[in-house]
Amino acid sequence: MRMLELNQTTSGYCLEYKEHNLSITASHIHRHRDNRITAELLFETNAPGYSPLLHQTQLNLLSTRSKQILAKEMEARYEAPWVEILEQSSVLILDRIRRGEPLQYISTFHEIKPVEYLIHPLIPLNQPTAIFGLPGTMKSYISLVCGILSSLPWDDNPLGFKVVKEPSRLALYLDYESSRDLMSWRLKRLQAGMSLGEVMLPYRRCSIPLADDIDQVKKIIDESKASFIVIDSLGGACGGDVYSPDPALKFFAALRSLNMTSLVLAHTSKESSREKSILGTIYWTAYFRQIFEAKVSQEEGENEISCGLFHRKANEDRLISPIGLHFTFAENAIQVERQDVKGIEGFLEQLSLSQRILEILKEGAMTSSELNEILGTRRDTLRMTLNRLKGKGQVVKLPSEKWGCEASEITPS
Hints:
Layout lengths: L4 E4 L3 E6 L4 E10 L5 E9 L7 E8 L3 H12 L6 H18 L17 E4 L2 E2 L3 E6 L5 H13 L10 E2 L7 E5 L4 H14 L9 E3 L4 H15 L3 E5 L1 H5 L6 H14 L2 E7 L14 H6 L2 E8 L6 E11 L8 E7 L4 E6 L13 H9 L6 H8 L3 H13 L3 E3 L5 E3 L8
Parallel strand pairs: 8-13, 8-14, 10-11, 10-12, 12-13
Antiparallel strand pairs: 1-2, 2-3, 3-4, 4-5, 6-7, 6-9, 14-15, 15-16, 16-17, 18-19
């Protein structure tokens, strides 16, 4: 007897004994507190005269007696050297899970790739990204737009996002807040408003914390062939007190085990502080590689919403200027357009001091005192920021002691 191959899947391992027309899929592998290691085994065959599904059961991989009992049961179902098959399968699975990730080396010998993006500049490949904000800040709509962008893939989109062209990165939507009908209705309206062809995203309504549900999620990822996951939202997916480190660490351990690109939607507090963050423990901010804050502006009674995405964290790249999206709601359609955040009422104060200075100077050169009167900031902070912008070549000091934008943007005074 010989095993032809063992392949790792998202949810476990697949062992193929081709000489016996037999495959064994191992999933839901767990190490228990009493040191037992159990796995759910699915036995299948393509031999003529047999049902493809032979048996499904859970096995203690370290128990000789359990393997002997299962071997006798399988001998009554299908002719094969079951004692040897079960022993070899157990040894190989145990070896793989104990071995963990293989040893690798980082070096300067090989060509180094810069940061790659699934959707540039929003979502880096194979990294966790978060969008947080108060309820009603269009986070779910933005995540659906991202799902459409990656799954089509929509590389010539009018929103200005660069998307991996081929192959498509199908987005799996894990929904802890809403329902399939509502999300389908939103997707249908976005598809109509953007004049797209048919769009279909794998969707799952969730109620179990990700860490406790990870084996089933991995199975769904394998079935759907998804390579991009959206989690809506973090509070339901973490399954515990968001201020406690333990649920956060369990959540990120589960998310990391997927080894795929992810977008997680989160909430923030209603506190009035200017610099807000993801609601809860500092681990939420620490473990996400890319973080955006969503804010909206809407006139009462209007069917249009302006949304700004403000870049709060970037681990491997620079912080980018805010991204503006304009949503127009009709009865059966939702249109999305790119919008200049600086033109959205109430958003100018959300920009960094450097960005606000540049926007003001585009209207005409000003002295430091005039800038300070408008901005209301400390004089030493303003002076250091102006000098930093000057060093970058973004502003110039004019003979009149006024500051102006770079030559192409200076308005004569």
